[in-house]
Structures
1.
Amino acid sequence: MTWPEVQGVVAAGERSALIAVGAIEQHGPHLPLATDTLIATETARRVGERMPGLLVGPTLPVGVSSHHLAFPGTLSISEQSFQDQVKACVASLAAHGVDRVFALSGHGGNFGPLGRLARQVDGMIGTAAFIPFDDLEAFLGVVHAVSAVDGIPPAASGVHAGEWETSVMLAIHPELVRMEKAAAGYVGDFDEATAERLFRDGTRSLAANGVLGDPGAATAERGERHLTAWVDALVDHFTRSR
């Protein structure tokens, strides 16, 4: 869009916008570093199709990924830098008349920082309400439920580069998926203690190949179902806040 087009949308009374945030980090030997950013971008596009008048902004590509830094190619910024970037973008939109900014993440490590930012600013940045989807447990529940329909347990569906994420990439960017290199990584219970270990000691402490799950059963068809379920949840969440 050009700036007059954005101005026209806001002047017409459509004053909601969406910011997606991703990451550049390892996704095992079979998925590209940009996986989270690519998934966030496609998810935001689909949410925009379902919510007429919503201004869909560009994806912020680098997130909070320090727990993946043991793997070459990973980029990470501090939580403060990440929050400052999001806050500045929302403030920019508010200055142009947008009064509600939604946020979604393609990277699990960004959910916490988004939620903490929303609480720090008491839900307002400038004159705009800031409304992120920050419930990582709910998100994983959505994708794991889709996997379960086909008999794939949560441990294989995974939390990082496992079945669900590989399926989504097969659906949206199959040319970037190297299924011949796909291999299971950590497939144990991902409980609170495991999550604490992940963020304290890094992903390599759980899986030498960087995979938390088993991508072997991934299919493009299931990837479409994962995306549909996730977009449904986001549209419901954002619509109730619009």
2.
Amino acid sequence: MNMHLIAIFGEGMTLSERYLDIIKQEYSAAHFIRLNSIEEANNVARSEHISFALVEQEMVADDIARGLAPLEPLGVERTVLAYRDDDIAALFYEHAHSHGNMTHFGFLPMNLQLDCWLSMLRLLFLDQCCVPNALLDMRPVAGQQRGCGEVNGLKANLTPREQEILRLVARGKQNKLIASDLVVSEHTVKLHMHNIMQKLGVRNRTEAAGIYFNGTRGVV
């Protein structure tokens, strides 16, 4: 990749200044800019072309599709998610995979040892499509039982994590307790519930639980 401008989206909660300094040392010929919102990319793009977008998970956690939408018209050659939460990264992967062109997306887990992290970063900058095995394991498998039957004539395509959360919701557990059981943040549970309700075509968790009880026998 012929890198001219590398844009870092985020306030340093996931990709700290220490890590950014390491990246700058590796790629001293590139120009770096840190932006507080993806929308700011539109202003930058008027004068410079963004070759590589490194997006912190906080920038897209609330809504993956909406969060990435402003980048799509800019022709960014590679968009990489820097993340610590596998659940958020798995949702990002689902969105990227649905676009049918994974060559434009990449994943940079921040919980790796430094040498492994650097190796992953170098592969990404070489235009390699790197997807950690942990994310592949969290995707729905073609042909596997979905655990939610049919909803309005459509099969619900829930990931294993979403099936697990739906099961706990159906048992009456609130988000805080689900988060504790699964050792994730309450925000992550809310994000999954939003995704589940969209896939099932329901308005709230009560309706989702009703679908579980009325049409599900595969989730235990």
3.
Amino acid sequence: MSTDDRIARARELYERAVYGGDTSALVDAEQGLDAVEADAALARGRILHARFQSADADAGSLSSEDPAELPLFERALELYRALGDTRGEAEALFWIGCLYQFIRRDNETAVPYLERSCRLAAQTGDKPTWSEALRHLGIAAHRAGQLDEARERLEESSRLRREVGALPGVASNMIGLAYIAAAQDRRADALATLDEAHTIARAHGAHAIMRHIEQARTQI
């Protein structure tokens, strides 16, 4: 059911209660609105996260965490759990884990959220969230020096992203795979991976990813 449908349904059930005296469906109306609130909180949190990611490039200064971001993701998680929406729960868990890893640089806190997200997304067949969780678990493994595990996670994430047509995401993963190859003294493989990533990113207008590819090429 769409957001508009849920709001219209709540209006209908309100009128049924007020004019007809039937209050039995008000719980259903409230649950529908909880779902709308959860979706909106998650979407608003993602917007704040995107602003954090782009702040350095746009302003040339260090980014700072928006204090509203984590509470939005936590509220979404609370509502999805209460609604029994496992798919939504997996996505909210991912974003909480991503915030701890990407913004706060706290893998110890992030990994349990990402692992739980990965399990739930796999159970529900939510390949986009599943692939995101795998990617960030791969990043965590890379930072911990577990290069084989990191490579496996990123390759599985890329497979899922190809299945859903998220090719710019594949190119993004390939940057991580190139760094892993370089760390394993496979420099030729690393540079070839970056070449392929650049081809994919350019074909899809993924300019931000292309900048990251050039940074990786310089470092490798």
